[in-house]
Amino acid sequence: MLKNGFSHFKEDKITKSFGLLPNSKEVFCYTLTNKKGTEFSVINYGATITSLKIPTSNGGKVDVVLGFENIASYVKSYDLPSAPYLGTVVGRYAGRIHKGHFVIGENHFLLHKNHGGNHLHGGNKGLSKVLWEVKEISSDENPAITLAYLSQPSDDNYPGKLYIEVTYTLTENNELIVNFTAESTEDTIVNLTQHSYFNLDGHSENVLNQELFVNASKILETSNENIPTGKFIDLENHDFNFSKPKKCPASIDTTFVLDKNDNCKASLFSPKNNLKMSVYTNQPAIHIYVGGNCFNEIKGKENADYHTQSGICFEAQNFPDAPNHSHFPNAVLKKDETYSHNTTFKFENL
Question: What angle (nearest 5°) sits at the alpha carbon of residue 136, between those of residues 132 and 140?
Fold first, then answer.
């Protein structure tokens, strides 16, 4: 049954103000810490991850995600020539939908076109630019925070009211577990993802000396607008074959079709910090994107200048434009079903 209310909790020392939105609503930042000293921070604007500080083998800590110091910078970032979506929850449908059009049964739907003639990352509003309700915080073993949002059909023309929850859990094994659930009042389409930009050398560096692995033998073929054609490209002799770890590419914006096994789906390794991040997910694809460019208009945390190689995204998700390709994985959520997405980012000092 679709939930229509949120529970409340007493705010404590892990909560602080992150600033005011243009409509004068206050945004809060919540920080969770595990027994190993890993610190994770998220704001309720866009359920956005703002920092993730991992202890390193040399006794220090490294902040492995890109982010901003205040809410004004996050709001301003959506007006950049190419919005970076730093650390946000993306949806209702992550990636592109061709011409914003899809069909469920005999019903045709037209979403907002916010990226040329196509729909991208949930549209003009999406889940990245709204205030989420904090439903629960646990600061016990394996601290966790659950945020919730009720998306209306009027938000971006998606059918049905969609109730979404995301739970971030910071385990004592230095895993950040991201769990999405969603329920709708009508048949609709759903494809949620977490859009953090990772850099294991620190958020002010570039990713080009870090080693990338992806457990995939195919990628999606796309048009010049980066819309899937419906065909697949074999990676056997391709530059984007990362079945064996090799350095991150300077430019990539590609959907990898994950091999069907229980193994690690992707990883990133920093020889500088001897730090490895492994990605596990129940999703059929990971969209890999290197970027973070803020066009010298907005400063990142600690006065960092984010550029086109500042970070790498591991967008675990369904295929972009899946509603328009019958042989792609199903993207329709029935009104009596529950959407479930689990992705884990595990950090190890090697």
Answer: 140
